[in-house]
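Students often ask why inverse folding is considered easier than folding. One informal answer: many sequences map to the same fold, so there is more than one right answer. In these notes we will look at a single instance of the problem. The structure comes first.
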C-alpha cells in the first residue's frame, strides 16, 4: 500500500532557507555526532538530544555566550518521587514520578504530565526544555516544565489511575502552586486526571482551581481547552496554506496518533473541508483514499477502543501510514517518530507537528532536502498551553469566558506567533524551526538577564 516517495514543489521560503549557511549535510553530520541509534530506540537520538540540538544551533546563531548557554542546558529544578500503588493483582507496583522545571525566567513553570511506560527523566527534561521555548514563542507569561509517571496507563483501571494521580500530586505539591508551577494534561492524562490532582492539592491548600489546567468544565476548566492543541494546529495550516497553494476542499491529510491532539486536529480540519485519508494510534494504522470521517472514527474509538477495527478503511502498517501521498501530515503521537530511517518515505507537502519532538534533526534535514514544509512543534502545538494560559487567567479571577472568546483569542495568538516566526525565517533565510528557536531563546535570555538570573 506504500506510495512512491515524491518531491513536492518547494515554497519560496524553503528555497531561501536552502541558501542558509546551515547546510543540510552539516545538519546531518551534527545530528549524527549528537547521538547514534541505540537498539530498540525508535529514533537515532533521544528526545533530549533532539531539543538540545535545536537549542544549540539557534544559540550559536544568536551568539549566546557559552556561560549563559550552560544555564539552559540543564533544568533549574528536578524532583523524582517513588509512587508505590497496590493494583488489582493485589501486589504493590512501584513507579517513578518526575516534575522537572526547566526555566522560570518568564513566569510560573508550565507543562503537562504524561503517564506512559517509556517516561524517563531524560525525556521529561527534554519536554520541560521544549516548554520553555514554546511558551516564549507564543509569548504567554510562563516558564517551562514537564512531569511524568512511567506507568502503563493504557492497561490500568480507572481506580488505579486515580491512585497514581493522587499519589503523584501528594509527592510533588511542594514545588507546585498557581504562582509557581501549573501542570496540565499530556499523553494518557486528561481532564479527569487533572480533576483528581486539583482535588488532592485542595486537601492541603484549600480549593485552588488554578493549580492545574485542562480540568473538566464542571471544575472551572476552560471552554475550548480540550480542543485547543488540535485547533492550534489547524490555525497553523490556515496560515501556511495560501503560501503552499493549498485550498481546504482539495487538501488531504493523515494523522499519526489519534488521541486528544490528533483527533481534534482531524475533526477541525474536516470542518474546514479537508479530507482525512489515513490515521493511526498505538494499535495500528488505517487508510481510505475516499476519506475517513474524523467524527465517526473518534466516536468509534471511544466506544470500541480499537482504531484498526474501524469499518470503511483498510488496515495498513504504521510505516505505510507515513508514506501515504497526501498534502498534510500531522504527527500527534510520541517523540522521535520521524527519523533518519523513515523520513525519506514521507510523501506530504507539509508537516504540522502536533506531537512534541516528533522529528529528529537528521530527519528534518532529509525533509528539508525533499522540500517538505515543516511547521515545528515549538509553535504548532502551542494551542494547548495558550488555552491553558486562558484557563489559568479565568481561574485566578473565578470568571468564565465563552468558547467563542477562547477560540478567537487563541487564533489571535497563534496567528501572531506564526507571523513573527515566519518573518524571522524569511529575514534570516532559515527554517521555521530555527526561527522559532531564535525568537524563543531571545525572549527567555532577555527575561533571565533583566531579572539578574544570568
Ligand atoms: P493522547 O494520549 O490523548 O494521545 C496519544 C495518541 O498517540 C493515542 O491515540 C495513542 O494511541 C497514540 N500512540 C501512542 N503510541 C503510538 C505509536 N507508536 N504510533 C501511533 N500512535 C501512537 O495524548 P495527546 O495529549 O494527544 O498528546 C499527543 C502528543 O501531543 C504528545 O507528543 C504530546 O506531548 C503532544 N502535546 C499535547 C498537548 C495537549 O494539550 N494534550 C499539547 C502539546 C503537545
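Output (designed amino acids):
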Amino acid at each position: 500500500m506504500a506510495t512512491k516517495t515524491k518531491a513536492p514543489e518547494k515554497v519560496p521560503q524553503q528555497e531561501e532557507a536552502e541558501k542558509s549557511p546551515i547546510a543540510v549535510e552539516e545538519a546531518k553530520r551534527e545530528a549524527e555526532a549528537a547521538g547514534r541509534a541505540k537498539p530498540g530506540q525508535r529514533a537515532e537520538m533521544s528526545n533530549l538530544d533532539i531539543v538540545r540540538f535545536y537549542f544549540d544551533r539557534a544559540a550559536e546563531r544568536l551568539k549566546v555566550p557559552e556561560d549563559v548557554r550552560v544555564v539552559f542546558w540543564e533544568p533549574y529544578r528536578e524532583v523524582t518521587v517513588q509512587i508505590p500503588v497496590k493494583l488489582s493483582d493485589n501486589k504493590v507496583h512501584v513507579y517513578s514520578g518526575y516534575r522537572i522545571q526547566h526555566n522560570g525566567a518568564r513566569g510560573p513553570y508550565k507543562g503537562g504530565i504524561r503517564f506512559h511506560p517509556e517516561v524517563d527523566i531524560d525525556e521529561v527534561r527534554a519536554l520541560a526544555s521544549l516548554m520553555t521555548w514554546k511558551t516564549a514563542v507564543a509569548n504567554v507569561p510562563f516558564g517551562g516544565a514537564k512531569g511524568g509517571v512511567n506507568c502503563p496507563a493504557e492497561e490500568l483501571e480507572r481506580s488505579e489511575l486515580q491512585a497514581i494521580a493522587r499519589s503523584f500530586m501528594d509527592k510533588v505539591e511542594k514545588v507546585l502552586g498557581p504562582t509557581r508551577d501549573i501542570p496540565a494534561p499530556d499523553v494518557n492524562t486528561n481532564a479527569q486526571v487533572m480533576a483528581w490532582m486539583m482535588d488532592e492539592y485542595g486537601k492541603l491548600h484549600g480549593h485552588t482551581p488554578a493549580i492545574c489546567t485542562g480540568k473538566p468544565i464542571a471544575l472551572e476548566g476552560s471552554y475550548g481547552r480540550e480542543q485547543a492543541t488540535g485547533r492550534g494546529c489547524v490555525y497553523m495550516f490556515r496560515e501556511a496554506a495560501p503560501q503552499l497553494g493549498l485550498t481546504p476542499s482539495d487538501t488531504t491529510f493523515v494523522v499519526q496518533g489519534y488521541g486528544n491532539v490528533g483527533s481534534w486536529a482531524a475533526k477541525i480540519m474536516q470542518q474546514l473541508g479537508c479530507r482525512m485519508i489515513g490515521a493511526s494510534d498505538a494499535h495500528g494504522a488505517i487508510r481510505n483514499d475516499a476519506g475517513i470521517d474524523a467524527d465517526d472514527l473518534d466516536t468509534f474509538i471511544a466506544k470500541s477502543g480499537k482504531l484498526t477495527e474501524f469499518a470503511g478503511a483498510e488496515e495498513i502498517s504504521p510505516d505505510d501510514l507515513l508514506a501515504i501521498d497526501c498534502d498534510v501530515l500531522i504527527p500527534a503521537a510520541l517523540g522521535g517518530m520521524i527519523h533518519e530511517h523513515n523520513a525519506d518515505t514521507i510523501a506530504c507537502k507539509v508537516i504540522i507537528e502536533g506531537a512534541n519532538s516528533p522529528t529528529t534533526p537528521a530527519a528534518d534535514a532529509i525533509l528539508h532536502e525533499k522540500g517538505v514544509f515543516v511547521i515545528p512543534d515549538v509553535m504548532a502545538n502551542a494551542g494547548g498551553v495558550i488555552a491553558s494560559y486562558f484557563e489559568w487567567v479565568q481561574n485566578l479571577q473565578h470568571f468564565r469566558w465563552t468558547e467563542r472568546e477562547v477560540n478567537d483569542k487563541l487564533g489571535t495568538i497563534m496567528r501572531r506567533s506564526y507571523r513573527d516566526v515566519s518573518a524571522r525565517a524569511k529575514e534570516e533565510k532559515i527554517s521555521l524551526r530555527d526561527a522559532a528557536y531564535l525568537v524563543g531563546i531571545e525572549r527567555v535570555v532577555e527575561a533571565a538577564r533583566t531579572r539578574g538570573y544570568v
